[in-house]
Design brief:
Length: 286
């Protein structure tokens, strides 16, 4: 799809949020895929970064410390990635702790809804799988699979826990402006995640009014946008690349790998920006 060999993947999850691999397993897999620069971008949590940093430096991979935040815009949910985050920022960590706490209550509320729908699922099992990490719907999906209600995590999203299904409960999120500004105040570089719908995640819709929203987000501090994402088709990549160029946003991207075991799941290195994008990000760091 791309005219260059993908050596950069800036969107990866571990078991510290809703992925299934440890940071060590993930980085080892990235090495097998011959990746040179990667970013671990867990949801609302940075606890996987130290292990990822240690193993990356041993393996000669450049690791960009990252994060993924959910944010609300009008009535939709938009994800923002932050690169080169400062993990020692106490205010930043306090905000993340609050978001994770709400994820637990929301997980419990979703399990209650699923029980009311007649499913024999317990929150204890969800919490056990999530461990100390950020609880997310993929953990609930895994339990539904374990219990035999669905064959794949994707089927759980399609039938029970997608945002239009009966088992869904929204979680607490920052507004789009708050999320971008939180990253800017942290010294991190905010990048818009997956702006268009993706065949690997059918519940996800394209951001409405994207081209009007980009200048607003830029004013708040957005520096880039995912262009080379997961299972995006060439047409989508081209559309996003021209939008990124038009708005002077750095084209970023990655696989958004979670190792969830879905039938269609882009692997590390299946999508990613050219190395030049990382050079451009670095020029913005002070
Ligand atoms: P949560 O953050 O708890 O709302 O869970 C959303 C997470 O589920 C995202 O990180 C997605 O990567 C993952 N996910 C997996 N499959 C889907 C799907 N079909 N629709 C939406 N999210 C999905
Ligand atoms: Zn996720
Ligand atoms: Fe996301
Ligand atoms: Fe993600």
């Amino acid at each position: 799809m791309t005219s260059y060999k993908v050596e950069v993947d800036l969107h990866l999850h571990t078991a510290h949020s809703d992925g299934t691999l440890t940071p060590k397993e993930l980085i080892t897999f990235c090495k097998e895929k011959d990746l040179k620069i990667v970013s671990v971008t867990d949801h609302d949590i940075t606890s996987g970064l130290s292990e990822a940093e240690e193993i990356s430096s041993k393996m000669g991979i450049e690791l960009i410390p990252g994060i993924e935040l959910g944010a609300t815009w009008e009535s939709s949910e938009i994800h923002i990635l932050g690169y080169y985050i400062d993990q020692n920022d106490r205010h930043f960590q306090k905000v993340l702790t609050d978001l994770r706490e709400d994820r637990i209550f929301r997980g419990q509320a979703m399990v209650t809804k699923l029980q009311e729908m007649g499913l024999n699922i317990s929150f204890e099992r969800v919490q056990k799988i999530a461990g100390e990490g950020a609880v997310g719907r993929p953990h609930i999906a895994r339990v539904l699979k374990e219990l035999g209600y669905v064959k794949t995590p994707k089927e759980a999203f399609d039938r029970f826990i997608g945002d239009r299904n009966q088992g869904f409960v929204p979680r607490k999120m920052l507004t789009l402006e708050e999320a971008i500004k939180l990253l800017v105040d942290n010294g991190a570089l905010p990048v818009l995640a997956h702006p268009l719908m993706s065949s690997a995640k059918p519940g996800r819709r394209s951001i409405a009014g994207l081209s009007d929203l980009l200048p607003i987000m830029k004013k708040w501090g957005l520096v880039g946008m995912e262009v080379y994402y997961g299972s995006y088709k060439t047409k989508q990549v081209n559309e996003l690349l021209s939008l990124a160029n038009h708005h002077s946003l750095i084209p970023c991207g990655g696989s958004d790998y979670h190792a969830l075991g879905n039938p269609i799941e882009p692997k590390p290195g299946d999508a990613g920006p050219p190395k030049e994008s990382v050079e451009r990000l670095k020029l913005l760091l002070d």
